[in-house]
Amino acid sequence: MQYIADLHVHSVASGHAYSTVTENVRAAAERGLEIIALTDHGPMLPGAPHAYYFGNLRVIPDMLFGVRVLKGIEANIMDRQGSLDLDDQRLAKLDIVLAGLHTHCAPHGSVAENTEMLINALRNPWVDAIVHPGNPEYPVDFTALVQAAVEYDVALEINNSSLTVSRKGSLPFCHTIAGLAKQYGAKILLGTDSHFAVHVGNFDAADALLAQHGITEEQILNTSRERLRDHLTRRGRVVNL
Ligand SMILES: [Zn+2]
Ligand SMILES: [Zn+2]
């Protein structure tokens, strides 16, 4: 599979990542990527930047080293209602909004409670994708989640870090998600979730997993500029891609 975009990347601004925006974008260029999304953690995660950081991303050029730079966030889901940790006005100005469950932000609950929380986040019109839904710390009803993702036209991430360095125990859940995504036709977003620039654009583990489930490029946002643009503009967001 040919991937043109890494849509989940952290910089030093996240507080526990180790490369600058410049280093990340340069790494994307060296890997031959056309697009990178800057998705630092939302303000409520310990060490993450203030909301001002996301409001000021416009100072970064849209093109850097020949790579289209999308300004985004990995927002924290904060409660069972699916609230995010950035206001709608700032979310509206971003190019891409990822949302996910993180300890210190999202309450841990039962399968039913976790599923309700994620589905409520899916219904937020600013959310483009749910990241690392296979996190074993937050077990969910995957059939209900995938069906809701299709209904609300939100992508589900297969997170390369979950299969390599983070969130141990994610693998079987990611297989379940991939199998259901194939069955129901859910959109897939791939992210390296890179916290250091050498990982930008490396989807080896996620690619192998998707191949086992026969998922083809038509379902994956990272394989086509047009497919990504169509997804990001579906709620009236203007993204020049
Ligand atoms: Zn995350
Ligand atoms: Zn992340």
Structural class, judged by helices and strands?
Answer: alpha/beta
Radius of gyration, CA atoms, in whole angstroms: 16 Å
The mean pLDDT is 96
Q: Which shape, going by the Cα principal axes?
A: globular
Poorly predicted runs are: none
What's the N-to-C terminus distance?
Answer: 21 Å
- Reading the helices and strands in chain order gives EHEHEEHEHEHEHEHH
The main sheet comes to: 8 strands, mixed
Helix-residue proportion: 25-40%
Please indicate the percent range of residues in DSSP E strands (runs of 2 or more).
15-25%
Bound molecules: zinc ion
Strand elements, count: 8
Total DSSP helices: 8
Describe the structure.
The protein has 241 residues and is of the alpha/beta class. Helix content is 32%, strand content 15%. It has helices spanning 21-30, 51-55, 88-93, 111-122, 142-152, 171-184, 204-212, 225-233, and strands at residues 5-9, 35-38, 63-64, 67-76, 96-100, 129-130, 155-159, 188-191. It starts with a strand and ends in an 8-residue tail after the last helix. The mean pLDDT is 96. One zinc ion binds at residues 8, 10, 74, 193.
Topology:
Blueprint lengths: L4 E5 L11 H10 L4 E4 L12 H5 L7 E2 L2 E10 L11 H6 L2 E5 L10 H12 L6 E2 L11 H11 L2 E5 L11 H14 L3 E4 L12 H9 L12 H9 L8
Parallel strand pairs: 1-2, 2-4, 4-5, 5-6, 6-7, 7-8
Antiparallel strand pairs: 3-4
Helix pairs in contact: 4-5, 5-6
Bound molecules: zinc ion (2 copies).
One zinc ion binds next to loops.
